[in-house]
Specification:
The two termini are about 35 Å apart. The relative contact order is 0.12. With about 350 residues, this protein is α+β, with helices and mostly antiparallel strands. Helix 1 packs parallel to helix 3.
Amino acid sequence: MPAPEAAATLERLRARHREALSLEHLVDAGVDRLPLPGSGATLERWRMLSEVAAHDLSLVKLFEGHTDALAIRRELGAADAVAGTRWATWCAEPPDARVTLEALPAHRSGPAPIRLHGTKAWCSGARSVTHAVVSCWNAEGEPCLAEVALGQPAVIVTDEGWHAVGMAGSGSVDVRFEGAAAHQIGRPGDYVRRPGFWQGGAGIAACWFGGALGIARQTRGFCGTKPDAHRLAHLGAIDTALSAAAAVLRESAAWIDARPGEDARQLALRLRLVVEDAAHALIAHACRATGAAPLCRDARFARAVADLPVFMRQSHAERDLAALGECVLDAEATPWKL
């Protein structure tokens, strides 16, 4: 679906469903058919992610996972997803929740069948999706990817692992695989080796930006037509934070489209950290500009302010800063210029 048509469709869906807008609504309307990262329209992809995020951060968590799964499968040569299916990307690897892959005798045609065993943590949208792309480990200890249909008895969606107030709507629970039938995608190591890994990682920043954008739009509305000087100062600070983050997003999307096969690790780390800093500053200014009333009496504003810091903890904080610093030192020349 072309970007202008997708944006118009999203507006109609938001008006029709309001707070009840779901991943199923977005998929059925074809809004999920975004340009692939590095395809020449990366910014259009990110704009759609940001607009969904501005509406509902828990929803964009599911939408981004779904669109990422479609992009991963396309990049690694899997068959196109069946229309109407809803996908998740579950590739977090905490040390206490690892899924293993059991190889089965290969069929004459089609991807090799496998079975999955173990518990996968942080499974966003586990009760809302039909399929998932899952990271797992083979008998040789190599990292692999698998796709699995969730509507089978060997997939157990639990109520465990998620007690947060922020991002409560994402439903990021633990899922157990008890010999679930699946198929491997690509070769061992392909998930992190492909260019799309860091391109997709950069796209998360568009979701964070969208969450900040939604808070900023509401804050502007709460300030009324004759705000005092203090509220105006906070609006000015919000403008500078959002404008700087948007500029880096646009620059990063153009870089990816100009170099779709190159390693975007440094770019993704920088972009995520820039947007995270801007979003934290924006939340502080928004809450000081509006006072307690919206936090206590406006459910959407209160939820967004609670959701965004939790979502941004997908960042690795100082570890990401250190990784970016290492990239700066390893560069052949000083990277800063105008």
